[in-house]
Specification:
Blueprint (H helix, E strand, L loop, with lengths): L4 H39 L4 H15 L2 H13 L5 H14 L1 H11 L5 H14 L5 H26 L11 H4 L6 H18 L2 H13 L5 H23 L4 H23 L1 H16 L10 H20 L3 H11 L23 H31 L3 H33 L5 H36 L6 H25 L9 H26 L5 H29 L10
Amino acid sequence: MEFGFLGFLNLMGSLGFFIYGMKVMSEGIQKVAGTKMRQILRSMTSNRFKGVLTGFALTALVQSSSATTVLVVSFVNAGLLALVESIGVIMGANIGTTITAWLISIIGFKVKISAYALPIIAIGFPLLFMSKSKTKSWAEVLIGFALLFIGLSYLKESVPDLKANPEILEFLAQYTDLGFLSTLLFVGIGTILTVTVQSSSAAMALTLVMANNGWIPFDLAAAMVLGENIGTTITANLAALVANIHAKRAAAAHFIFNIFGVIWVILLMPFMLDFIDAYMTSNYDASPFNDPESIPIALSIFHTVFNILNTLFLIGFVGFIAKTVIKMIPSKGEDDEEFHLEYIGTGMMQTAELSLEEATKETAKFGEITARMSEFLRELVETDKPKRQKKLLKKIKKYEEITDRIDDELATYLMKVSEGSLSDESTRKVSHLLNISNNLETIGDIFFQMSRDLEKFFEGDIIFNSEQKGGVLSILDEIDKAFEIMVANLNKEYDKVVIEPAYEQENRINKQKKALQKKHTKRIETKMYNINSDSVYKDLFFACEKIGDHIINVSEAVTGQKDKDPEDK
């Protein structure tokens, strides 16, 4: 049977089946072990060697070096990992991704796992209807595992028989005997294949199937594996184009690490292949150069040896790689007047669970930006210089626009995250983050309205007396303390936040507002009331009390507390 358009569609469908199975299994594992993964990453990256082990363990677990890289970037952003430590984890992730090749080589080719796939799905399917979210996640792991190997089975059947269809690779035949140039050509093919299918694991599976079926000889299959190691870094760098500076640096470090490894392995390729050939001949009584069925194991050995040796060679140069990528991608510095999402990069949103890490850090930054508006308002109340007043009024207006845009983009991002497959805990967190963002945006609106009131106040050449100025500054002092607690809460692990200090500070704000209101009432009773200054003064301390309400709403959303009447807190 000739390999026509339908055959090509079958091949692409089989590849899609394989990739989808890997995605379902990976997301299921991440939901089962998501929190534990974060704990492991915190505790096991104290030095570069532990970082390598951590990267290996995480990638072997979730079967996705991209997912590990996204998690690493999250922790670099959060300040929990230094760039040097993150490079160690990425090195380990490269070794961890070789586990996929071994799974396919040992289970996919040696055992007819597809025969057991339907029974595995039969076990997993009822678990999808259980009430516990973790049980449902285990169902996804089982079903994803089964789908992955069904896809591999179809992939093996969809790859055409070269003996019956020699014209398929006829155009490549003239390039297989060019020595070093042939190696470079197939490195390029491996790179393009990985970028095309957007998965080094899927590209590796396709290479193993092609080699096992006799499409390509062992040496050129090894060259394709090297190309796949370059391809996976190009995919990460393309994603990082629209991501933040930390993601760009991590992706660049990944590229430098892999490209250097490919260069030295190409130069030593004949020696490495001869060594693997000798090992296979003595242990398996089969040479990968003569027996296509032995190529999958030989390629898995090559892939693993390459990544382990490359890590051993470069682990001592982690600091140098970090300095190099920092020079390659210098920081533009923080420009407070220009809004940009620092932590979220849409191109890096690989899985819904891990994307919440990015959104959480962006929300914490949002809290810090909003808190700065209190500083500007304080100075606006204190200064009597018209030029400085105009500058501060513009700054507060700018920051109010920034809070609007952050709220809008965070909401859009979180909606995209919620479209993914989330655990119950993560679904609740999306709701809490949306609540936090909405409250922070409202705080920005209140500060802006206060600045508008003051602007009209200044235009009328009216000034506060010392008592009024002192009153506004006293309640702003309490607001600033509330902001400190709120920002600290946003930067902590949400399940470890204690709400009581926030409630205590909210009570102080309410007491201060009541005290100012009492004095204000007394001024009216004693006919010391000034309609121009006192009306603005009253609006300001009432607005401060409203800000306090929204600040406590943020801490309540962090801890998952139910909203209460502000007066009862």
